[in-house]
Write a structure and sequence with these properties.
Length: about 140
Amino acid sequence: MMLPPNFEIDTNPDRLPITEIHAFLNTTYWAENRSLETVQKSIEHSMNFGLYHEHKLAGFARVVTDKVIFAYLCDVYILPEYQGQGLGKALMYHIHHHPELKTMRRWFLATKDAHGLYRQSGYTALEKPERWMEKFRSDL
């Protein structure tokens, strides 16, 4: 899937503006009140995808993975001023076709309101939710 002119996706973590990412994530329901240190550590331990428009960050996603069996897609966003241009779909395409991820067997994500976007990339509800468990610490 082609990106519009003047857009690019880069996986170089050194290029990411961590403070901008932190500021945006703190406006979201899933990462509100995450510290800058936590955002920085999460980026250090993930595969990161920066979406840039003329060298300015326009979107972001990260994948927590062993690069063989398991991939957890998280912290996905497109800045509001760039939404409605198909950039979310393009970002998903580039993530799923990255050379280190394109043969991944199992992908996961959690979303409150973007099910339609992710269905377009092949995501469905858990096939056998009774097999899955979670440990969630609301005190952190």
